[in-house]
Automatic annotation (TrEMBL):
Domain HTH marR-type: 1-147
PROSITE patterns per the UniProt record, alphabetical: HTH_MARR_2
Biological process according to GO: response to stress
Organism: Rufibacter radiotolerans
MF terms in GO: DNA-binding transcription factor activity
Record's protein name: Transcriptional regulator
Cited Gene3D superfamilies: Winged helix-like DNA-binding domain superfamily/Winged helix DNA-binding domain (1.10.10.10)
Length: 147
């Protein structure tokens, strides 16, 4: 279904305005679907993002600042997310032995196991209707917008 039908708006100021609205709408649409896929696993999109960052860092620890730097949603409260993941025993926090002002965050085996289970449902499935070339072209266009 095209954007006009989705939001019940037949005209836009120009093609750029239409594309912008379409990007916002599609971003929200993708996030809603991703959230629904994650719900059975008991994690949110930002929590999943933090777990992936920690898995990529493993076995090196991460700091809250590193997580903030790498998170997809820069407005997320990384400390609060780590609190929730720690309560679920998916991450641990320990004082850095070389800098007492720093807290090291590590993914636990339970966190690794959860991510392994979730790997099969991740992201790309929503884009499966695109060809490889279309997906490459879409990525190129999105990178161009941000540059």
């Amino acid at each position: 279904m095209n954007i006009e039908e989705e939001i019940k708006q037949s005209t836009f100021k120009d093609a750029y305005h239409k594309a912008y609205i379409n990007i916002l709408y599609t971003s929200n649409w993708l996030q809603q679907r991703q959230s629904a896929l994650f719900k059975p696993f008991g994690v949110t999109l930002p929590q999943y993002n933090v777990l992936r960052i920690l898995r990529g860092q493993f076995p090196k620890p991460a700091t809250v600042n590193l997580l903030i730097e790498r998170m997809l949603d820069k407005t997320s409260n990384a400390s609060r997310i780590v609190d929730k993941l720690e309560a679920k025993k998916l991450v641990t926090r320990e004082q850095c032995p070389t800098d007492r002002r720093t807290v090291d965050i590590l993914i636990t085996q339970q966190g690794m196991d959860l991510l392994k289970e979730m790997d099969s449902i991740e992201g790309g499935s929503q884009l499966g209707i695109l060809t490889q070339d279309e997906a490459d072209h879409l990525s190129l266009l999105l990178d161009k917008i941000r540059s």
